[in-house]
Amino acid sequence: MTAPTHPAALRDPARPDEVHAHLAGWLAEAVLDPDPDLSAPLRDLGVDSLDLIRAARRIEAAFGVRVQLRQLFAEELTLDQLILLVADQAGRRRAAGGAEPGAAHEPVVLTPSQEQAWEEQTGSRAHWNQALLFTTRPDLDPVAFAQAVRHLVAGHASLRLAIEAPPARRPRQLTAALAPGDPLDGILDVVDVSELADADLPAAVALRCAVEQRSLDPLAGRMVRFVRFDAGPARPGRLLIAVHQLAFDMVSWSILLADLEELYEGVAAGRTDVRCTEGTSYPQWAQALADHARTPETEAESEWWTEVARTPGQIPLDRTPPDPRAANTAATAATRTEEFAPDFTARLLETARAHRCHPGELLLHALGEVLGDWQGERAVRVDVLRHGREEAIGDVDLARTTGWFTTTVPVRLDLAPGTPTERLARTVGHLAALPGGGVGYGALSRHGRPRLAAALRGALPSDVSFDFEGDESDGLPLGTLLPAIAEEPVGEITGPDWVRPHLLEVIATTDDGVLRVEWWYSTALHDQDTVRRLAERHRAALAALCASAT
């Protein structure tokens, strides 16, 4: 995007004290600590990789410079080192990389995450979305908004993807062109609800949102829909943004919303130089991953991943239909949520700091302890969801790229006898030693040499996934254009026959100092009481870890 206007003090050369003030404020928010030790490595303060990805965006918006994610992910990076890094690069504009906005890309392979989902999804491939509904400012300029959407879609290749799936051949993805004069048919629609009374508006919005959830189709190149509900000049309207899962992940929301806000403000102000430019486009990333799979460094990881794949990953079932994975659909999905009081959540954070690990690693280890007892194994395999934006692969810049980067990485949790501290240390050590952040596993299993790929893909898939999503309140960059999340429901984001990727999904979030752990399961495979007992044992395992640190 066109570089923002920066305060004079932050132009080349940047003043380190101004940089310090800005980043120290961000750090205090990220670590939830009123008095953090700013000389300590950011990792030790609980700053995780998603925080750092947000930091890259924040740094560019505030100072007009690009910091490579690989620099931010340095193990011992401190705030002082980050300040010097930003101050040293201030004044240098981020060079616009890749093709012109809106250019088409020739067909390339799917990423490992995309291809695995495509193969496993025997249900609704089309009806599988991410969607959010926002309120819009009452005085929204419809012409400026349409132009901003055009720039946004032109600037982000993942929003223009289409999937090619010829018979008996591997699917590929390509990107359609969007020229300045092309219509936005199928991308942007406006619904006039200005004549509806306030009491009737929510039902009308919810009904249209439910219909729109079934409008996307990756085979037809319909990857994104913007539906604006025009409530008239005196009332806030609504905006539904629905994006197909094959083209988007949670990190992409922050990028998309910040870009849309800046584009609208620029167009509404009459600027003619407004544009939105990615670094590395999503198709370019897909090709970089495929090339990465055939490098000697990645092939050297095969022994590590083969050993992990041998670890048991199957869980007991309460019911055994002929094909458990086919029975594991969205229609049978249920959830149990465990909420932890603020004082318990605070003790978990203190325990993580005492063990020099991330809170998510504590939760994962406790999950491993529960699964080990349930499965009767001394080592268990869990699929861990990671952000997947690894800039150590090739010469890529992913801080502003939208797409489905989230990768599923199998991890081995060693539960051999030992003290609680020793067992936790084995888990933390294994996670720290993951080669290349874990993207090599997917690259090797999908794009590696046939012998290596077959060995990894021949292992039984893990039944359990874990995702630590962090602080829900530290998410979307809402502004004046889209000031809030709307209250109306967005409808079902998957079809009822959509096949869930895991039999048991454990998702942890924090919000206002409260930890919540969701246990998603299928009623076709497990009883409610079974999942309740697992959740209670997980809570007890976390309490034991806290007690071991005192």
Describe this structure in words.
By secondary structure, this protein is α+β, with helices and mostly antiparallel strands. The chain folds into 3 domains: 8-89, Non-ribosomal Peptide Synthetase Peptidyl Carrier Protein, Chain A; 105-280, Chloramphenicol acetyltransferase-like domain (Chloramphenicol Acetyltransferase, 2-Layer Sandwich); 284-474 and 495-548, Nonribosomal peptide synthetase, condensation domain (Chloramphenicol Acetyltransferase, 2-Layer Sandwich), CATH 3.30.559.30. The chain has 18 helices and 14 strands. The protein has helices at 16-31, 49-63, 69-72, 79-89, 112-120, 142-155, 201-212, 250-268, 282-292, 296-299, 302-309, 324-327, 342-354, 359-375, 420-432, 439-447, 450-457, 528-548, and strands at residues 105-109, 129-136, 161-164, 172-175, 188-192, 224-230, 237-244, 333-340, 379-386, 407-414, 464-471, 484-485, 504-511, 514-522. The strands form 3 sheets. The chain has a 6-stranded mixed β-sheet with strand order 8-14-13-11-9-10. The protein has a 5-stranded mixed β-sheet with strand order 5-6-7-2-12, with helices on one face. Strand 3 (161-164) and strand 4 (172-175) form a beta hairpin. Helix 5 packs across helix 16 (439-447). The longest helix has 21 residues, at 528-548. It is globular. Residues 1-14 and 91-98 have low confidence and may be disordered.
Summary keywords:
Chloramphenicol Acetyltransferase, 5-stranded mixed beta sheet, Non-ribosomal Peptide Synthetase Peptidyl Carrier Protein, Chain A, 17% strand, globular, 550 residues, alpha+beta, 18 helices, single chain, 6-stranded mixed beta sheet, 3 domains
